[in-house]
Amino acid sequence: MKTPDLVQRQIHLDFHTSPLIPGVGQDFDARGFARTMQAAHVESVTVFAKCHHGHLYYATRHPARHPTLPPRLDLLGGQVKALHALGIRAPIYISVLLDEFAAAQHPEWVARRPDGTTVGGGPLQAAWRVMDMAGPYQEYLADQVREVLHRFQPVDGIFFDICFDVESCTPAALSGMTREGLDPESPEDRKRYAASVTQAYLRRFSRMVVESSPRATVYFNSRPLGGLTQDLRWMTHVEIEALPTGGWGYLYFPKNVRYARTFGRPTMGMTARFHKSWADFGGLKPAAALRYEVSQMLAHGSVCSIGDQMHPRGVLDPAAYQLIGDAYAHAEACEPWTKGARPVAQIGVFMTGLGQARYHEEPGGSNDGAVRMLSQLKHQFDLIGADAPLERYRLVILPDSIPVDEDLAGRLRAFLKGGGSLLLSGTSGLDAQGQPVLREAGVRANGMSPFAVSYVRLGNAISHGAAATDHVMYEPSVRILPAAGASVLAKVVEPYFDRTWRHFSSHHQTPPRPEASRWAAVVRKASVISIAYPIFKLYGTHANLAARSLVENCIRLLLPDRLVEIDAPSAAEVTVTRQGSRRIVHLLYYPADRRTADLDIAEDTVPLRNVPLSLLSEKPPRRVYCAPSGQPLIHDYGNGRVRVVVPVVEGHQMVVVE
Predict the structure, then answer these.
(1) Quick check: bond before 154 cis, omega within 30?
(2) What's the rounded Cα separation, in Å, for the pair 272 and 279?
(3) Which of 377, 397, 621, 636 has its Cβ near the most Cβ atoms within 10 Å?
């Protein structure tokens, strides 16, 4: 699809409003609505045609029009007209799989599990029912989409929400599976059919939008980002919904944008102004938190979207737009250095579990560990799929469990011959029989260790910054030995025994034996290093600093000229973007702390002062300065690096090298 230029500062405005609420839209003032957005530095507002309750908010004869919306009020039309009058875009929101009005009128359209129960909320739950797109509901929805496209042609864009695959056993779905030669009794066939139904309606609705409004943006939300290879055929860009306090956490956006941005499409981060999650009326997050989230989007080369929900009476919360306006004033000031900027990466990290990717990945796995570890170490990296062009990177990492077929093995060999380096961990690079696929790794494998927990004794080459002790590794390892031409950088030290009911010692794992075992923990051959442990999952699950130190020292051997070096706390985030001939180093420091069982809050901006920073550069820069202030920085250049001291980082600071 045609790639649009997305504006930088957007609002995603929900309006999921029960039919039991009276006076919907009665206090709406179109000019005041648009002026509030303009005063908050907003350039685009996603406004609502249809909500999860299944109700419509524009001039229509359709029975789904909200029952308490005044008869003469075209709420959507008033929003679009007023926003356009001030030069603000107005893409339109349509709920797809959630439609309570249709579910009540046609319960036979609701998706069903194999036991006949409805997918989604039950009869006594305050929860949404999920519609079946394999049956008549799809035509019902298509009629609504056509009407919106006709009434508002040309639309600025359509945001289709709630578009995950739905396994269903309604009569329509059973008939469809049978027609396609699938077995409804097979869970795999039901999954396969659900995916085909989704791809068919993504294609259908995308084409409807493009044929009506060729310049419109199109996005289908609630899709797992692991499916982008297929889904991007039908979308103009990628939006990453990630409300840190709403269940996504502060790792979700930086993890997923590092993958999404490798497809060459514009990316958008979406947070919200709420203290918790969507529709948290009266809940405002701290100003520092929203500024952090917006700055993080900018630092990764994304445009920004902040979610809100308008009160049923049709008025915006002034306090919310004061909060949003403060964050977007900063984003607007940064725009000369962020618009069109693209992230720079030296390292490509294969993303695990792409074939089984869900919208929310279980926390604590290899992907979480890799992103946390490399971010804390200030490396510049992308998350990539198996088909990614490896030549973009100096170092490629296969974390923990990446299968290597002959095609990928050939590409990795070519990458190594071209001067690249490779880091393998866990079972990555082993075939189905547990044997190495790449001779270049210099490893012989002998199955999995029988010990759930063991220890690593580091050799001198990778002991920098680590204590002189045997470091515990909380996950089982592959038993490896060096092949010809390889060297051992660390040894495995095994415990006396595993902790079981038959034999245990003290409170946790059994202590290590005094002597190292014959097994290697880390093996190096030329530009390939293999770590026997699933070191990234280990770090994602246990946050063991010894694991991070081990990986950092291995990377130093494989990538001695790292792009950025900085003396800053581990929680500080550093990214590099390129905008024409200039490079921009984003420094972020917004320490968040856990204040409830599942809620991290960033409330304070803690300044960092006199931060030493150096950037790899082929030639001396003409000018180095802070942005957006323009403050010049004294710099020196030598050995291929630009060196400066950043006077202060107050939340977000850009250092521009021209």
Answers:
(1) yes
(2) 10
(3) 397
Structural domain includes residue 299: yes
CA dist., res. 565 & res. 643, Å (int): 9
Are 171 and 45 within one domain? yes
The secondary element (H helix, E strand) that includes residue 152 is none
From first CA to last CA, the distance across the chain in angstroms is 34
Q: Are residues 397 and 429 in the same domain?
A: yes
Could you count the other beta carbons within 10 Å of the beta carbon of residue 451? 21
- Domain count along the chain: 3
Domain boundary among 321, 339, 357: 339
Looking only at the bridges linking them, the beta strands covering 267-272 and 528-531 are unpaired
DSSP state of 641: E
Q: Are strands 520-525 and 238-241 parallel, antiparallel or unpaired?
A: unpaired
617: exposed, middle or buried (C-beta count within 10 Å: 0-12, 13-18, 19+)? middle
590 and 532 part of one domain: no
- In this prediction, what percent of the chain has a pLDDT beyond 90? 95
Bond preceding residue 632 cis, omega within 30 of 0: no
* DSSP annotation of 514: S
Asked if 353 and 330 sit in the same domain, the reply is no
Cβ-proximal residues to 146 (8 Å cutoff; 6+ apart), any chain: 208
Same domain flag for 108 and 149: yes
Residue 192 belongs to some domain of the structure: yes
Query: In this structure, what CATH number is given to the domain that contains residue 48?
Result: 3.20.20.80
How far, in Å, CA of 474 to CA of 491, rounded?
Answer: 15
What pTM, to 2 d.p., does this model score? 0.96
- 2, part of any domain: no
Predicted pLDDT of residue 353: 87
433 and 545 together in one domain: yes
Type of residue found at 347: I
Question: Token pair 């290899």 is at which residue?
Answer: 366
Q: Give me the DSSP letters along 521-579.
A: EEEEETTEEEESS-HHHHHHHH--HHHHHHHHHHHHHH-SS-SEEE---TT-EEEEEEE
Closest CA to 16 of 435, 270, 311: 311
- 454 within a domain of the structure (yes/no): yes
pLDDT reading at 359 higher than 90: no
CATH code of the domain containing 398:
3.40.50.880
Burial class (CB in 10 A: 0-12, 13-18, 19+), 557: middle
Percent of the chain as helix, strand, coil, to the nearest 5: 30, 25, 45
* Phi (first) and psi of residue 26, to 5 degrees: -70, -25
Q: What is the DSSP letter of 281?
A: T
Domain co-membership, 130 together with 276: yes
Domain-ending residue, one of 523, 558, 593: 558
288 and 374 housed in the same domain: no
Residue 357 confidence (pLDDT): 63
Q: Which amino acid is at 160?
A: F
- 186-235 per-position pLDDT tens digit: 999 999 999 999 999 999 999 999 999 999 999 999 999 989 999 999 99
Give residue 286's domain range: 9-339
